[in-house]
Each structure stands twice: as C-alpha cells, then as structure tokens.
Design a protein that fits this description.
This protein is an all-alpha fold. The protein has one domain. Helices cover about 80% and strands about 0% of the residues. The protein starts with a helix and ends with a helix. The relative contact order is 0.12. Keywords: Signal.
C-alpha cells in the first residue's frame, strides 16, 4: 500500500510540474514548450513516473523503461530533468539530481547494448 501511495504522489508531482511549466513556456519560450510537448509523447506515463521516482527519489528504473528513455532521447531526458530540478523546492540538490540523471542515462545505454 505504501508503494502505491508513493506512486500516486509521484504521478501527482509529474502532472503538477507539467501544468506549471507548459503555460510559462507557451508565453516566453515557445521552442522550449515544443521540446517539452515532443518529449512527453515519446514516453509512457508509467515510465515517466519511474524515471522521476528514480532521479528524485530512491527508486530504480525498470529495464523496460530504459527502452522508453533511450527512445525519448538524451536531449529530452536532460532538458526535462533539468526543468524539474530547477524548481525552488529542489534546486538545493540540483547537482545530485543531474548526476542521477546522467547515471541513469548511462545505465540505460548499457542495458540496451546487452539486449
């Protein structure tokens, strides 16, 4: 039950972040909004939640989500995690989150090379 509650909380955070960032991008940064919209459609909601939980929590990414992550692309992955890490509540640990982001990318590349 605790795992389910955690997943619901993480899903809420992802949805809230999307809602918070999209209006800002549409006004000031149309190119960034386009990248955001393009990136989000390449990955399943389940994997987006798994990635966020792995970078900003203590979860580990599923091998199946590594495929989605690589399909999303490094630019998308880097950009989306950076946007989330830049929010005021998280910025104090931004360096840690960006390292976890890069470690996750390298892990997923290694996983796909063995398949």
């Amino acid at each position: 039950m605790t795992k389910f509650t955690f997943q619901v909380a993480m899903l809420f955070i992802v949805v809230a972040l999307v809602c918070a960032f999209v209006p800002v991008f549409s006004v000031d940064e149309s190119e960034a909004k386009s990248l955001w919209d393009t990136c989000l459609v390449k990955i399943s909601p389940h994997c987006a939640l798994n990635i966020v939980a792995a970078v900003f929590g203590n979860a580990t990414i599923n091998d199946s989500c590594c495929h989605d992550l690589i399909k999303e692309g490094k630019v998308c992955h880097d950009t989306l995690i950076k946007y989330i890490a830049d929010i005021p509540a998280l910025i104090a640990r931004e360096t840690l989150y960006l390292k976890k982001r890069d470690d996750m990318w390298n892990h997923c590349v290694a996983i796909l090379k063995t398949v």
